[in-house]
Design goal:
It is a single chain. This protein is α+β, with helices and mostly antiparallel strands and 89 residues long. Helices cover 43% and strands 21% of the residues. Strands 1-5-4-6 form a 4-stranded mixed beta sheet. Strands 2-3 form a two-stranded antiparallel sheet. Strand 2 and strand 3 form a beta hairpin. Helix 1 crosses helix 3. The longest helix is centred in the first third of the chain and has 15 residues.
Length: 89
């Protein structure tokens, strides 16, 4: 049996714990090289992106403890000054 989206999401969480910030531009290439291109795609803007199943698993795994910083295009752990919700600007 091959790698699952849950396993890729667990790797993302481990990386976030290790490096504190996950930039989409970097992590999408890491996922493709470590786990296979089936976990990535090109979005409507032509940019490489992480597969939706992986992101769904990552969101379930991290809950409210991780936020997506839209301007920086990265995930990081929630800090006291962050607004409610997953996405920050």
């Amino acid at each position: 049996m091959g790698t699952t989206p849950d396993q890729v999401a667990q790797w993302m969480f481990s990386e976030l714990q290790r490096v504190k910030y996950l930039y989409q531009e970097t992590v999408v290439y890491d996922i493709a090289s470590k786990f296979g291109e089936e976990f990535t795609y090109y979005n409507d803007g032509g940019n490489p992106a992480i597969g939706k199943k992986v992101l769904t698993s990552f969101k379930k795994l991290t809950g409210d403890s991780v936020i997506w910083e839209r301007g920086e295009r990265m995930w990081r752990f929630r800090e006291k000054h962050d607004e409610p919700g997953r996405q920050q600007y």
